[in-house]
Amino acid sequence: MELFEKEDRTPPPLADRVRPKTLEEFVGQTHLLREGKPLRRMIETGNISSFLIYGPPGSGKTTIALIATEERRHIFISATTEHIKDVKKIIEKLVKEKEFSRIKPVLIVDEIQHFNKKEQDAFLEPVEKGQIILIALTTENPSFYVISPLLSRLSIFVFEKLTVSEVEEIVKNALKNDEYIRGLSLTPEAITAIAKASDGDARKALNIIETIFNSTDKRSIDIPDLDRFMVKTLPYGEEYHYDLISAFIKSMRGSDPDAALYYAFRMIDAGEDPLYLLRRMTIFASEDIGLKDPQALLIATAAMEAFRFVGPPEAYLNLSEAIIYLSKAPKDNAVLKAQAEVMRTIRETGSLEVPKKLRNPVTKLMENWGYGKDYKYPHNFEGHIVEGENYLPDKIKDKKFFKEE
Fold first, then answer.
1. By the 8 A CB rule, do 75 and 90 touch?
2. pTM exceeding 0.70
3. What was the pLDDT predicted at 238?
4. Residue 256 and residue 214: Cα distance in Å, rounded?
5. What is the CATH number of the domain that holds 205?
């Protein structure tokens, strides 16, 4: 190693270089950022309270968080790389700083869902006491991944996937304003193709532009040139999406692993998220296979976990194995029909009384009311089953929802 290393003059990624610094430069999310909307008013007035942004990748979550906190002391962390112990130290530091300033510091937490529910408790007290402002960002539904006590203390803003025209505008702005790629020219058709291939992800579109710039000396790019840079230009609009996923599911249901593999990799090759396929396969395992092969659900969920752990391209083997297994498994939709019949019955009969023998006699008064009376403990009977016992409300006591074939 040299005694005096040369300064690294590699510029930051294009997406960072052209990141908007004001609301006027920002493209998209007009449903939240039009004049008079709460998020826009919060940013313009500087009266920021803790909030969460839920939305797809590349939709502008980080950018808005940074614009909102430009005039404030803020720290940006990612839950994918930070340990909660280090985050607690950061919070302690910010809380101490608050003692010497009237302006609340801000902690921006990207992908907050990667902190488990116990770890998320660390944010509760400082947010509740007003010691810090928390801006949480997530690509996953916060209802499932963020603890309720924390959610109740945050304003929730839902970002939408960017439209093709919005991504086109972002690409044009980058080509016009970035000092490194200013000499690169793309035809309108090429810009549209890149915008469609990015599927609403501005970062993905800008990465494609940067790949083109770094991979060729050619400075005028048209549609035929895109294949050279491995840009997906296959048509994959909404109609293709629904047609192909329908064909994929029906092929597995029809026990045809060859067709199922074909449609799966048609979608992947066109830019579909493999995790979307794995989510549909997990549903399929219960909907179309069910108890005919309970292992199917384990295979589907294991494949999803393996895909997240291993990552492509090797993880496509895990995906393929699961597709073949589900296709070849015996089929049965009894679980689906049982659920549908249960829901239909509930809507027809309303809130039927729970039999008193099934209620817990928590207090003496409840015991006097007959709660728990005549309940038979199954483990006291042969085979752990009380022959002839009924557990449904009396009005539907003879109802059979699950019917094994």
1. yes
2. no
3. 53
4. 43
5. 1.10.8.60
